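Question thread 4412

I'm putting together a teaching handout and wanted feedback from people who do this every day. The idea is simple: show students a protein as raw sequence, then show them the structure tokens that encode its fold, then repeat with a second protein so they can compare. Below is the first pair exactly as I plan to print it.
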Amino acid sequence: MLSIVAVILLAAMPMPVRAQEPVKDSLGYANEMLKAGVNAFQTDYLKGREFFNAALPFADSSLRVTLCRYLGLSWYQEATDKMDVSGFAEAESALDSSLVWYRKAGEQAWAVSSLTMLSYLKEHRWDLDGALECLDTAYAKLQPGMDTETLDIIKNKYAIYAKYGMVDRITPLFVQVDSLMRATADTMTKVECGVILADNALNAGHASQAETLYRESLRTLDNSGHDNELYAVLGKLRHLSMSRKEFGDALDCSQRMLDILKAGGNQDLGLAYFNIAEVYEKSLDTARCLSYADSIMANGGVPMKDPILNARHLTLKGMLNGRLGRWNNAADIYASVDSAMAAVGQNALRERMNLVPLRAAALYQAGRLSESEALYSEYYEYCGKVYSEESDATTTALLNLANIRAYSGKIEEGSSDYMEVERRLTRKITERLRFLPSETRDHYLDDMLKVTFAMTAFGLKAKHTGDSFSDSAWEALLLSKGL
């Protein structure tokens, strides 16, 4: 994207003027610096920025506009890089700088992207008013033809309204999306609008309307060359068909997704074969499901040589065995995956640990409780070291450990773990209760209800009455009601 912008600006800028005697305060010098900056910008925007700044004192009014635009673009690029490494404060500062330069250039359209990204950063640190103000300002700067940018603003507003429970503001956004879909000449904007409306219809319980919109998007995308977008919409239609038990349609979508990957020369076909196997699993065709589970490993006749990718394929096969109730098989497959990843070494540690909950759950379902508990305990220790003791991942790991201990009849250990989970969740929720957006409230409510029901059932089984454990369970229930 940046290279295209650079070429356009370079073509539009005044041609360098060469003086007989190079003088540093000449317009020619400024043009030379601009040209050098454009060339450097392609690979090193910071170096490009140095050239643009060097040119500024010697530029005329026309050239100054071009330089200011480029300086704004360099700060936008820096913000993007900072975002990639979670440097949110630095990214916000860089975006503020980009807007300063765009303002000096009198630039409206380019400021839209900076404002849209800035709104995300402000919402990230709970500055809701600032985030919405950025989006309103960006919307006011839109110009005819900026359909993609318009849709980005609408999507960002929707994300905020949905997250913070501003239901009354959401419906007008879908009216805007519908109007944009009808008015735009841009194919991909039209498709994206259609998918957004389909998702909304599906969430509202209008499955038939959603299917119609998904299929309209597919017709638009057919033979368009936008295979990634076609693949994504097929995935949505596949999911809808599965939920409606229309397995023939789901199988057709899955096969088309596989064909897209093959046609694109994609080397990793494991997930595509898993999608087909999953349809057969849901339709209770066990023989075909297991056949396609083997196809995952065959990978279209070219098995993966990379040990980690091969282990991922084996994990998918284990998941299918588990869904078919073959829990011992699944547990043994996961053990093979773990051994393969252990041979890779430290580079596969995170993947090994991510596998542990699947493996522990399979062992639990197979009745191998002591093995399951050992793995849940190992995973809890790992999460505490990697994510901190207070993280959601660590708390969830502790809840799983409490569940397996309670189920195994280890009353004291289970009681202690449940109470610690309840304490951590209560502390986290009460600290943030005033600021929790609606979707986060729902998430915490689900977590707290799981803990409450688990503690209540365990408390009755273990005859915990009128003690600190029953008090803790009661507090969890009251907090759930408050959410």
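The second pair follows. I'd like the answer to focus on this one:
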Amino acid sequence: VQPLWASIATNAADGMVSAWLPTTQGLYYKDYKGKFVDLGANLHGARVGLAVPTYMKNVNSIGDLK
């Protein structure tokens, strides 16, 4: 992930839409602040987690994933 932030900061890349802020990639945001233009969030209310299809009747926890 850090190479992508460095690429944006040095104009080697034009942009990215995958920054998980403020927690996951907040340190990179802080390190490179002023070297990129923050256009704001592109997704609101996103949730992170595991999902399984409904036909997996016996999967109710991470421990059930074998």
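Top answer:
Good format. For the second protein you could add a caption like this: Helices lie at 2-9, 26-32. The radius of gyration is 17 Å.
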